[in-house]
From TrEMBL:
Belongs to the glycosyltransferase 9 family. Gene3D superfamilies: Glycogen Phosphorylase B. Keywords: Glycosyltransferase, Transferase. Its EC number is 2.4.99.24. It is an enzyme of class 2 (transferase). This is lipopolysaccharide heptosyltransferase II. PANTHER family: ADP-HEPTOSE--LPS HEPTOSYLTRANSFERASE 2, TETRAACYLDISACCHARIDE 4'-KINASE-RELATED. The gene is waaF. Pfam families: Glyco_transf_9 (PF01075).
């Protein structure tokens, strides 16, 4: 795309539909912002993902795609397309792969429509990229950047990026203080959920055992995070623990969850959206991987360690395990505790070495 010939004043970015995937698009958003510094960038996202970008350096505006309400059915798509058309976007960048994203951009008469030629939508795109097997094997961060790069939309900084407002951080600090967690307390986050499906979830009793051991060794306070669907799992973890535990699963909005994870000093998690949020904030983390492909969705940061066991059926990418869940049962409490200890020591050594070099 020749940006000198094709003046772009307003860009619509169709976000992905899952929190983790959306976090992994943030380097792509930086590339868009850097390539079109004078353009207004608007995100179109579902109600789950939209709050991620309510405060973000690369985003000027957010439109919620309400597929179960105002934008339900084909009539809802027409209604949304009319709204988008009224905003006179010059370019639509479709990070979501579905034909629905391209159809809405086409109905909205956005003149330039950029994305992968997936889901049979190639004819609806003006700037399309075919997906080879090599592209499918890319880490999701590289996958989104690869498509943009074909049209000269690039960045030299591929790190994840999320933002919270100072007021959100202050409110979170006050909330924790109300539960006896002070500013200087070491906060260990435990994230036992994974909204994609039960196959991605390690076991509550093992999370409880890890939390107890690390809390005792590190003098940490423990907080269990998660959405409403993980409240029962979080309660089971708290009941199995001997150390004090603050259960916040199901009690936070997406924005509050972001501030809470940002406050954590260490995070133990399944492969999940909160895992990617922690990676974006540079929170040291240990992630347990089972049925998912770590080569495409591992935490995109240098403060993480993953634990996975080679089995004959993983990665299967299934939501529910049809057999004995061996990819997860093979991961022990000792595996996670030892990995966490090693990672913390490595990061402390790195920080010390950097401090000495800067003197």
């Amino acid at each position: 795309m020749n940006k000198r010939q094709d003046k772009i004043n307003s860009i619509l970015v169709r976000s992905t539909n899952w929190i983790g995937d959306a976090v992994m698009t943030t380097p792509a958003l930086r590339a868009i912002r850097e390539s079109f510094p004078d353009a207004r960038v608007t995100i179109l996202a579902n109600g789950l993902v939209a709050p991620l970008f309510a405060v973000h350096d690369a985003v000027d505006d957010v439109i919620v795609y309400d597929r179960k309400g105002a934008h339900a059915g084909f009539g809802g798509k027409i209604r949304l397309a009319r709204e988008l058309s009224s905003r006179k976007f010059d370019l639509a960048i479709l990070l979501q792969n579905a034909i629905d994203a391209a159809l809405i951009a086409w109905l909205a008469r956005i003149p330039r429509r950029m994305g992968y030629r997936t889901d049979g939508r190639g004819l609806l795109l003006t700037h399309g990229v075919s997906v080879s097997e090599d592209i499918r094997r890319l880490h999701h961060v590289e996958y989104y950047l690869n498509m943009l790069g074909r049209f000269g939309v690039t960045t030299g900084d591929k790190s994840l990026n999320l933002c919270t407002a100072s007021g959100e951080d202050l409110a979170l600090a006050e909330l924790l203080a109300g539960h006896g967690v002070g500013k200087g307390d070491f906060l260990l986050g435990i994230n036992p959920g994974a909204s994609y499906g039960a196959a991605k979830r390690w076991y509550p009793e093992r999370f409880a055992a890890v939390a107890d051991r690390l809390a005792q060794r590190w003098g940490a306070r423990v907080v269990v995070t998660g959405g409403p669907g993980e409240a029962d799992i979080a309660a089971d973890i708290a009941a199995a623990m001997t150390s004090p535990c603050l259960v916040m699963a199901g009690k936070t909005s997406v924005r509050e969850l972001m501030a809470l994870i940002k406050r954590c000093d260490f995070f133990v998690t399944n492969d999940s959206g909160p895992m990617h949020i922690a990676a974006a904030f540079g929170v040291p983390l240990v992630a347990v991987f089972g049925p998912t492909d770590h080569t495409t969705t591992s935490p995109w940061c240098d403060t993480a360690a993953i634990i996975r066991r080679d089995t004959d059926c993983a990665p299967c990418l299934l939501r529910e395990c049809p057999t004995d869940h061996r990819c997860m049962t093979a991961v022990t409490v000792e595996d996670v505790v030892e990995t966490a200890e090693e990672l913390r020591k490595t990061l402390e050594y790195r920080t010390q070495a950097q401090s000495e070099r800067s003197r």
